[in-house]
Amino acid sequence: MKTDAIIIGSELDGLVAATRLCERGYSVRLFSTGAGSLHYSSDGIHVLGFSQATNEEYVSKPIEAISQLNQDHPYQKIGKDQAIDALSWYVNMIGDVHQHVLLNDCNKMVISPAGLNIPIYGTSKHQATIEQLDRENVTIVVFRGHRDFPAELIAVELGKKDTPSRVIQVDAPSEFLENAALAKSFDAMEDLDAYFATIGEAIPPETNVVLFPAVMGFSRHQEVLVTAERVLGMPCLEVPTLPPSIPGMRLEHAFVSHLKNNGISVHLGASISRSSFDENESIVIWDSMDRQYEASALVISSGGVLMGGLNVDSQGVIHETSLGLDTYQSEPLNAISVDRSLHALHTAGVETDNALRPKRNGSGTIQNVFVTGRTLAHWNPAAESSSEGVCVATGWAAAENAHQYLEEHNNG
Amino acid sequence: MPETAKRNSDSTRSDEVIWDSAAVLRSVDQCTKCGICHAHCPVAAATGEFPGPKYTGPQAQRFRIIGSGHELSPILCSGCGVCTSVCPNNVAITDIITLAKAEIGGHGTKIGIGQKLVNRPELVGRLSGVFPWLTNALLANSLVRRIVELVIGIHHKAPLPKVHGRKFDRWFADLLQPDGTPISFFTGCAIGNYDPDVGIAMVRVLNHLGYKVDVPTDLCCSLPMLSSGETDAARPRARALVDALQPAATANKKIISTSTSCSLTLRSKYAAFLDMTDHVSRNVANATVDACEFLLHRHVGQLRNTLHPIPLKVLYHGPCQLRGHQMGQPAVELLRLIPGINLEVSEADCCGIGGTYGYDKDKYDIAMSVGKTLIDQVKQVRPDVIVCDSETCRWNIEAQTSIETIHPVQMLMRALDAGD
Asked: pLDDT, tens digit, for every residue of A285-323?
């Protein structure tokens, strides 16, 4: 069973790499132990929110700040120009496959589930930003009994910006009150107009923007929100909830469905048990039920420690789990200094060259394996608020580098 | 990762990875309580009675270890396996819940007579197959079905299959096969009793590809028993089946199965639920292969050159057991080889029926609610034919949509025949 490429992992970067390779006409197979960390990702694209390299409280122009980052940072490895290409390709592609995302001139502030302001570069149409709420009168809607949406914290944060707001409780559209159950009930709702008309009665007349938790449907959230806006006569925006994130799940579903419909085989729930490869030759992997698959190029997008792409041994040393690739970490993880350990944990990962190619057992660079996203070392998604940006940029760059390799080695 | 299930990234293989019941239960410790399984569980979305896979699986398992007694929630799990497939940390959630069902059974919680009957599909098939026309006529009568529901608890709308007597046996006995590579076909309970045409198509496809087919046994794999907690009754039956298939495995023959659930049971569930990890059982497990997986891995080139165009709109629904097989959807890749086919792939995780889960009068409504996504997609796509690898899913989908629903090898057979 040979394909041009195999992707390991269904993180955003793996889905991006698979989509790009498919678009270039390659046969692709994707293996993933489980669903990826998009379940923790809110909406939009965080490119670079915070950096010690700039003197700002937060980064206002993330693309310009890329060249000030550490030389080993994934953005630096692929270069600013490729990062720009990757982001504009992504915005076009995702507009077709899922929903429109707008790249802004500079970072805006998005509201986190804990009410914090987080810089964000690419936003979707119904994603609430602080800028949109400036000088508005805001009502935050809570579905009675829904515990994953701390609306009061959001109201406090808006208060600090002198934005008047209040929280109102309305009846939930479903019997069950988890994020996913609420989203499904909006998908199934027959009379959206009637439902939002009832909500309208509870909204104080001075309101001119309504915030909902980001659970307004899985597959028809845009229709749901547009209907809400029409019925209520004002902008209706979503604010992320605590995990699992419905916007992230929407995105993952849209990707997987797009890949399947374009002939890519997705092996969900499959792990890699062993592999065999030599430099410049095709790669063979075996799944956990000992089926053999062969590919000319491999992309490793299996995530960090949380998603099992990396693990930590009892000595506090980081390992890459699918192929045993060489890793970097600033120091062993220990309990002596939590801050230093956390930094070491977040920035640990696979060491690569600028083409995202790793090494194994200290030998030469492997020419046809490319590593992306959180599996990579030298970046800190949490502290930088750069997760989606790095995943999109490295996923796209890995696909382009694999393309270059395949062109050179497939004899046409 | 649990120790026995540790992955090895070296190219030299040390020991085979076997998930026996100890490994399944040890995987509890891999759970980070991320909640992804719960967000995807179709049963938790359909009923408030089921607390969801995170709770009923790894969380409650810690208390089962200290023997906290009776609980009902595992029974409500349909065993679809979505939770296990989306878990980023290799927790064998569905198998943990299934083992809990067995433990509840061991504590004397009653398994109803209706469930016990559907747990013995080969027995039911044999009895009702004596006068198939009579059985079919009776089961088509709604009054009879109401009485059946009242007496033994099988829902009056549950999609029971038609019985066919021994149509496949008679056809196969008269078949003159050309010489070829020997291969075994494990028909299970379905082909002989309920689904003869799938068996006929499979044998014909294998003959076309140069195989000489033998049918070593028609014993039942006993998955319905295993997934409803009748573990002790399943044990001797599983041993008998492995013994019946052993000669084929010893002769290095592949054992082909058209039922994704029977093949999954042989390959991994006897180890997980019955700890059958002995040499003979593992040999049989490793020789067993799903029909579509086999065709995809061995015969893509040959099929591509011999399939004729079928200009039909086809909706493919991948059954839940494919997740347990961890092999993607090989049928999709095979169907795409058919020229002119207009193929749509199901967006639904599960058709709802969950093997025999939805037959129960108390679970039928949950099953229908779970299956709604698929039925809605069928209404929107309006396919000419629906294709699905698993028998109970096919019966359910056909009953609900009135659209012909066939196995992928039947579609391939039609494409091979189309040129004649």
From this structure: 999 888 999 999 999 999 998 888 999 998 889 999 989
CB contacts < 8 A (A, B): 126
pLDDT tens per residue, range A387-399: 999 999 999 999 9
- Nearest CB to A273 within list B7, B89, B267: B7
DSSP state, residue B27: G
Probe site for chain A from B49, B86, B94, B294 (most A CB atoms < 10 A): B86
Report yes or no: A213 and A146 within 8 Å, Cβ to Cβ: yes
Pick from A69, A72, A63, A22: which is nearest to A45 by CA?
A: A63
Beta bridge partners of A369: A298
pLDDT of residue B7: 38
Q: In this predicted structure, which of A331-340, B50-59, B150-159 has the lowest mean pLDDT?
A: A331-340
Whether residue B313 contacts residue B382, with contact meaning beta carbons closer than 8 Å, is answered with: yes
Average pLDDT over chain A, rounded to an integer: 93
- Residue B12 pLDDT greater than 80, yes or no: no
**B contact test, residue of A33, A294, A369 with most B CBs within 10 A:** A33
Of A39, A266, A275, the CB nearest to B328: A266
The two domains A2-103+251-409 and A114-241 share their CATH topology (first three levels equal): no
Residue A276: its chain B contacts at CB < 8 A? 11
More confident residue, B2 or B165: B165
Chain A residues with CB under 8 Å of B94 CB are none
Q: Phi/psi of residue A276, each to 5°?
A: -145, 125
Q: Locate the chain B residue with the closest alpha carbon to A29.
A: B328
Quick one: average pLDDT of A36-54? 89
Residue A135 phi, psi (nearest 5): 65, 10
| Rounded Cα distance, B95 and B101, in Å | 10
B86 and A178 within 8 Å at the Cβ level: the answer is no
Which residue bears the tokens 């993933």?
A: A32
Ordered by start, the domain boundaries in chain A are 2-103+251-409, 114-241
Global pTM exceeds 0.90: yes
B300 CA to centre of own chain: 24
Contacts of A326 in chain B (CB under 8 A): none
Residues 6+ apart with CB under 8 A from A78: A86, A354, A356, A393, A394, A397
SS3 letters across B311-332: CCEEEECCCCHHHHHCCCCHHH
* CB atoms B326 and A288 under 8 Å: yes
Residues of chain A contacting B329 with CB distance shorter than 8 Å: 260, 265-266
Q: Which CATH number describes the domain made up of A2-103+251-409?
A: 3.50.50.60
**Residue B4 clears pLDDT 50, i.e. is over it:** no
Query: Parallel, antiparallel, or unpaired: how do β-strands A236-239 and A272-276 relate?
Result: unpaired
**B44:A39 CB<8 A:** no
pLDDT at residue B265 greater than cutoff 90 = yes
A387–chain B nearest CA distance, Å: 18
Q: Name the architecture of domain A114-241.
A: 3-Layer(aba) Sandwich (3.40)
Are B86 and A268 within 8 A, CB to CB? yes
Residue of A129, A118, A123 lying closest to A50 (CA atoms): A118
Tokens of B319: 């059954």
A319 touches chain B (CB under 8 A): no
The domains located in chain B, with CATH, are: 3-106 (1.10.1060.10), 307-417 (3.40.50)
Q: Which residue in the set B32, B39, B345 is minimally distant from A261, CB to CB?
A: B345
The proportion of chain A whose per-residue pLDDT surpasses 90, expressed as a percent, equals 77
Using the predicted structure, report yes or no on whether residue B47 has a pLDDT greater than 90: no
Residues 30-49, chain B, touching A (beta carbon < 8 A)? 32, 34-36, 38-40, 44-45, 48
Q: Is the pLDDT of residue B420 over 90?
A: no
